[in-house]
Amino acid sequence: MRPVGAVALSVGRVSREVAAFPSIFSLAIESAAHFVCVAEEGCVKRTYQPNNRRRAKKHGFRHRMSTRAGRAVLRARRAKGRHSLSA
Question: What is the reported pTM?
């Protein structure tokens, strides 16, 4: 049974319960546990995984030209004098 006010910490794949400390210490421990978890490989995956082909297929010139709204976007960018019209 968990004591009242206990903080559960996850370090890597091991989960531990730590008795409640004053707020400043518990924040420091939680931050340290998060840092360890992020530093390990495979623990946290970043949300943006760049892929040039997928980017061109979704935001490229040919995709813009394929729809009426996309053509309007290109027209507006040309009118504004943009150097690059699309991705």
Answer: 0.48
